[in-house]
Amino acid sequence: MYRDLDPQNWDALGGLDAIPMLRGVVQDGFPGASLTDENSELDHIIPPERMRHVVDCDSSQALVVHDVLQGNNILVQGPPGTGKSQTIANIISGAVAEGKRVLFVAEKMAALAVVKRRLDHVGVGVACLELHSNKANKRSLLEELRQTLHLERVMNFALVTLTYTDEAS
């Protein structure tokens, strides 16, 4: 995998600098709009009725989801068990609810499986088209395409109506 980042292998595409997302990951970071301040009151940043989290998350994970759905590119790193797959599942769910397409790539098959399982558990997995090695055969690909094409914007989260009530008032 490290050979893929050799600049000589990118000449046909204009070099690594020609691809902003990759340049951000391996060189410059992601300049632009600053990320949401972690010390801010979460309810003032993300109104509860706009939260589309389908799996549990803490406030820092909610801010990452919010920032990504606002169009920011973010690299999330951490040791096992720190909630990365939960965060990714919430990002994917939120993007799908907004009618966006998502490409989720992971080095390890286990990471793909964990996120897919979380999405399946909450009914959003039907929007996923799995193209990794053990699922990549013509029959399963066509069946997944058929299922996905017949979905209506993945329930648009309309089948589940959440009502926010302010208990303090």
UniProtKB/TrEMBL annotation:
Keyword annotations of the record: ATP-binding, Helicase, Hydrolase, Nucleotide-binding
Membrane spanning stretches: none
Keyword Ubl conjugation carried by entry: no
Top-level taxon in the UniProt lineage: Bacteria
Residues annotated as domain DNA2/NAM7 helicase helicase: 57-121
Keyword Hydrolase: yes
SUPFAM superfamilies membership: P-loop containing nucleoside triphosphate hydrolases (SSF52540)
Any GO molecular function: helicase activity
Protein name stated in the entry: DNA helicase-like protein
Organism name: Xanthomonas fragariae
Taxonomic classification: Bacteria, Pseudomonadati, Pseudomonadota, Gammaproteobacteria, Lysobacterales
